[in-house]
Each structure stands twice: as C-alpha cells, then as structure tokens.
Design brief:
The chain is built from 1 helix and 3 strands, in the order E-H-E-E. The chain has 62 residues and is an alpha+beta fold. It comes from Planococcus antarcticus DSM 14505.
C-alpha cells in the first residue's frame, strides 16, 4: 500500500457520512470499502455485536 493510501474505520458512535467527511477533511477520497463482523464470546458461543466498516482512502491531488 502506498503512502497515498490509508484505511479509515467508522467509529463506534460515528455515522458513515461523518467518516466520509473526516476523510475529505484530511484530503482523502473513498475508493474502497470493507466490512467485517465483530464478535463477543457469550456462554462459550461467538455472538456478533456490531459490524466494522472501513473505507480505503486515496490522497486527493492538489
């Protein structure tokens, strides 16, 4: 991954649009998206508790 590419994770109490605005403010544009479940073990069983969303950002040309 080049230094012009970063992954931005949507915070637990942040909306997707807030994350995209944060990326834009830092000079990046979203070019990819990845989602993965977050599990917690309850009574010996994995239980999904939330979805982790990440955006791949490329540095905007200036």
């Amino acid at each position: 991954m080049s230094k012009n590419t970063l992954w931005f994770e949507v915070g637990e109490h942040e909306s997707i649009s807030e994350c995209l605005e944060r990326m834009k403010a830092e000079g990046y544009a979203a070019v990819g998206r990845r989602e993965e479940p977050l599990f917690e073990e309850i009574d010996g069983q994995p239980v999904p508790i939330r979805q982790i969303v990440k955006f791949k950002g490329d540095k905007l040309e200036q």
